[in-house]
Amino acid sequence: SMRICHGALALAIACALVASAHGLGRLELGSGRQCTPAMRLKGGCGFLSVYGSTMDHHSLRMKILELSRTIRHRGPDGSGIHMVPLEDKAGSRISALGHERLAIVGVMDDPQTKKDDKSDQNHAKLHSLSGNQPLYSHDRKLALAINGEIYNHEALEATLKDKTGFRTKSDCEVVVHMYKEIGEDVASHLDGDFAFALAGDNGEFYAARDPIGVASMYMGWGADGSVWFASEMKTLQNDCKKITQFPPGHYWSHKTKSLHQYYKPKWFDVSTATEALNLQVIRDSFIAAIDKRLMTDVPYGVLLSGGLDSSLVASLVVKMCDKAGKPRPATFSIGLHNSPDLQNARTVANMLGTEHHEFHFTVQEGIDAVQDVIYHLETYDVTTIRAGTPLFILARKIKAMGVKMVLSGEGADEELGGYLYFHKAPNPTEFHEECVRKLQDLYKYDCLRANKATMAWGLEARVPFLDKAFMDLVMHIDPKHKMITKGAKEGFIEKWLLREAFNCKDENGDIYLPQEVLFRQKEQFSDGVGYDWIDGLKAHANSVVDDTMFAFREHRFPYNTPQSKEAYYVRDIFENNYPQQTCIETVSGGFSVACSTAKAVEWDEEWKAAALSGSSGDQSGRAVKGVHDSATKCF
């Protein structure tokens, strides 16, 4: 029967992944090279938690199970739940953790389970595909639900006073044991991308998010005084009176029942950005950032647009695989037929020698996907949707090929002033302050897109440019080295210092990238997939939103009133999915040019005039006249 066939196929895939992780075979992606299984285990996921609910035990458990289904796309391979009363008495409020796991073949090696089980089963080879979260402290009085990667887990484990063996091989288990020993300072010790909640006996509760917001996380407040935390907003929308994005670099504690900022780097203040330029240190730091992200037991790949950032990631991963004697990763690109990204990605992939997979989409296919994109990304920001749509389509194709993790190039433009509007920066101080603003807002835009567009299909994206150590390094560099001056010997193009850091040969005498890629002009992803995509989306919106509808937009959308028909179109779709006012207010607005903040609009008189006139602005890099090679009139 069809059901039996589907079951057999699922079993075959599971067996192939297990075999791959243990060196018994590799998942073939083509006739040539294979996508690489590498060093360790981990899984992405979605989580849900609540502190202090007044529901009874059964009702709350059913509610957690019901709501967990809304994020099952993030972790389709297993579920877990943990509940604990705040007080040891009847009628106590209850806290709960729910978890949806994306299994990346984790080996269960629980000493207590081995001791209790009298069978001859070999627990060293028992694969937990039913979900191994929440993770527990040794005394099982504290439970953890986490979405994340902790890259310094081995170093942290070595610092623990309690040397009891861990119950799992997860890099995240160290979080629960660290909390037991150092309490609320735990988040500041973690090097990685994470969003998590801890619940313990006697009302103990703690939630935290990584410094930049690579992992998505929301919080909400229930009518009964409960506080909710989840990977995505859709999980909270019907049970919380107020919802916000959980701010990056913060934690929430039951002790104060409020948020606390733990991430306060010195570079938030421009006066600390005084370091001299050292290209060798930049190169070494970024190589280390990529190396620590190659921990996975499953086939992985690299998103390759053919631009500087993704090409550099791909080049370094290939060199690391060659040095370790491992197969090279697959690379993936998407665009309209003959788009700039496809052509450039093809060139880079041929140069690197990767198994390259190129996917085409049409404008109509993109338009058809927009409704699903907005549902998953939970935003009506135009640029995020423009860029998120091709990534959403690509992620589905990649996951269908058996790949569960990809490396991506987000973050470099914010750290180094890579957007074309940075050409207009009047001085180094304003350049640096704009970089800080962009990094602080990443969780609303590029990080949100990269996380949710991929996790919509159970695909995990890792972003080495947002490595904490690398970020600290480049943000402490004197911003005069980042300023852009056309025709100068240095700094003649955006992100010059990154380009120049890899404008050399490696230890084997090989180049990192050819000159035409290393010094290619910045192209925003929504532009690079093909200019016709943006133009086609605009044309479609203009045909759907008539002049009368648009004239009354302030009455239809009094908050963050859309200033273009494209913005009206995506806002209407958003509110069909998320009609609550508190959901609408999770999305920022304001005038912007080529992805600038509102403050940077002051750098150009034409932009300022457009903002004052009520223009919508334009996020395309083509809006920067005199800089972009294909600049167009946008206002």
Walk me through what this model shows.
The protein is about 35% helix and about 15% strand. Strands 2-3-1-9-8-10 form a six-stranded antiparallel beta sheet, covered by helices on one side. It has a six-stranded antiparallel beta sheet with strand order 4-5-6-7-11-12. Strand 2 and strand 3 (about 95-100) form a beta hairpin. The longest helix has 20 residues, at about 1-20. It is an alpha+beta fold.
Condensed summary:
This protein is α+β, with helices and mostly antiparallel strands and 635 residues long.
Provide key terms for this protein:
single chain; 635 residues; alpha+beta; six-stranded antiparallel β-sheet; 37% helix; disordered N terminus; disordered C terminus
Measured between the Cα atoms of the first and last residue, the distance is 60 Å
Number of β-strand runs:
17
Helix count from the secondary structure assignment? 24
Proportion in helices: 25-40%
The proportion of strand residues reads 5-15%
Question: Strand pairing plus helix content: what structural class?
Answer: alpha+beta
Instruction: Tell me about the largest β-sheet.
Output: 6 strands, antiparallel
What value does the Rg take, in angstroms?
Answer: 24 Å
Form type: globular
Describe the secondary-structure layout.
Blueprint: H1 2-21, E1 45-53, H2 57-68, E2 78-85, E3 94-101, H3 111-116, E4 135-136, E5 142-150, H4 153-159, H5 173-182, H6 186-189, E6 192-200, E7 205-209, E8 218-221, E9 227-230, E10 242-245, E11 250-253, E12 258-261, H7 279-291, E13 300-303, H8 308-324, E14 330-335, H9 340-352, E15 355-360, H10 363-377, H11 382-400, E16 405-407, H12 412-416, H13 428-441, H14 446-455, E17 460-462, H15 468-475, H16 496-501, H17 515-518, H18 525-528, H19 531-544, H20 547-551, H21 553-556, H22 565-577, H23 581-584, H24 605-613
Parallel strand pairs: 13-14, 13-16, 14-15, 16-17
Antiparallel strand pairs: 1-3, 1-9, 2-3, 4-5, 5-6, 6-7, 7-11, 8-9, 8-10, 11-12
